[in-house]
Write a structure and sequence with these properties.
The protein is of the alpha/beta class and 319 residues long. The protein contains eleven helices and twelve strands. Helix 5 packs parallel to helix 6 and helix 7 packs parallel to helix 9. It starts with a strand and ends in a 6-residue tail after the last helix.
Amino acid sequence: MRKNNILITGGLGFVGFNLYKFLKNKKYNVYCLDKNKKNLKKLKLQKQKKIILGNFLNFKLVKKIIKEKKIDVIIHTGAITQVLDGINYPLETYHNNIQGTVNLLESIRTINKKIVFIFSSTDKAYGELKKKEYIESDLLKAQYPYDLSKSSSDLICQSYSKYYDLKVGIIRCGNIFGPLDFNEGRIVPDSLISILKNKNIILRSNGKLKRDYIYINDVCNAYFLLMKKLVKNKKKLRIYNLGSKYNFSVIQLVNKILKIMKNSKTKVIIKNFSKKELINQKLNYSKIKRELKWSQKNVFEKSLAETISWYKKNFYLFK
């Protein structure tokens, strides 16, 4: 029995490329679709035939790839992912994140409804936390542009599954960290690169914002388990929170980074210019543990040390 042909959108991004490597190690036939030429060069993948340079907003290209590569599973990680980008460029964010998702779902609907679709959602799709934890049945009440683009896409995925009988999986994940994240707008890469460049760490918030932090290897495993379940099981729609037992404020996280790096010289400067972000987020992830037998295997301090080690070795990529 052959293994599934998988297409990962945003395959040169942080989650996408780590997932690409993870699934390749398990001997799946994996293709990546991404428009990011810079990451293509950084990762030295120009000659890789299974890395397709292109945009999922190109509906004809998406359909062509699905047909020619006989795709069985699409994992949609591609998106404009930064909160501030969403605030500054709402039109581009909504168009990219929502229309791109519709393009992929519509391609499946018109080509082959048996194709499994997995959508990379976020805890931010829920909006501001009004209780101890989010659960999967909570209403999506996002307000900020990036958050709303994700909750809208999340709901559209559910609609396509229910009304067009598609197999859809949705993972609403907390803050992910680990190697191969080139996005310096995120707190872990930004802090590490600042330290390595002997610069102060600038916090755009007041440092009190709390998030779940989860290592990329645990995230990849969750996508893998969800994919296997969707392929083998008849149930059409599966939605899971992917949270963490590690829930920290921004300042707590930065202090942990400084401690592991044994750095007492770098100053943390709180600018607090970003007022339009969620204050507290916490995911209840008992459902994914129960139904997919997923578990958080990576210890935070060790995972953070591994991440720091990767950035030290690959610091030349950020100069």
